[in-house]
Amino acid sequence: MQANAIPEGYRQDAKGHLVPEQHIKEIDKLRDELVQELAERAQDLHKRMADFKRHAFNSIAAFVSLSAEQYRVHIGGKKGNVTLVAYDGRYKVIRQFQETIKFDERLLAAKALIDQCLAEWTEGARTEIRTIINDAFRVDQQGNIRTGQVLQLRRLEIDDPRWQEAMRAIGEAVQVMGSKSYVRVYQRDKDGAYQPITLDLSAVAL
């Protein structure tokens, strides 16, 4: 629904009231004009960034498909991390998908089994493993389990059947809550290191 037109000579305040311009201080008018101008430019920039992201993902997916056709294979879906480098090595484009992972209640069972192992291991034995385990189950500043550290426990080769059952429980406790997609573009500097061409407004140097 289209907003009602504001009569000439009036401005609408934050409460929706129409205020005659002659009753508005000059500094308030200038502030309003500045904010309106910056907001309009920000909206235009946001739209162009969204268009770029859409174009980048579609173009990368099309190129990956084209490249796969050289080997007479079809790659299903649009997921999968990909790195593309310009022929001269000056630019690099990375497509990334990052999943948000949480654990369900089965993590509690895994932790109980791990605690049984720790309780029965002789004092002083497997000291490094004890440290890794205790660190894995420490929560972050928001009180959340650090999923990466917990999942790394499955790389430890321990023969105890309870440990192996705990690792199975950890694997089954993983729940994918969602995913985010990224396109990152880099340019190689004079030292040969790739520096990001940042699209984050707060990180753009003036």
Automatic annotation (TrEMBL):
InterPro entries: Phage_B3_Orf6. This is DUF3164 family protein. It comes from Stenotrophomonas maltophilia.
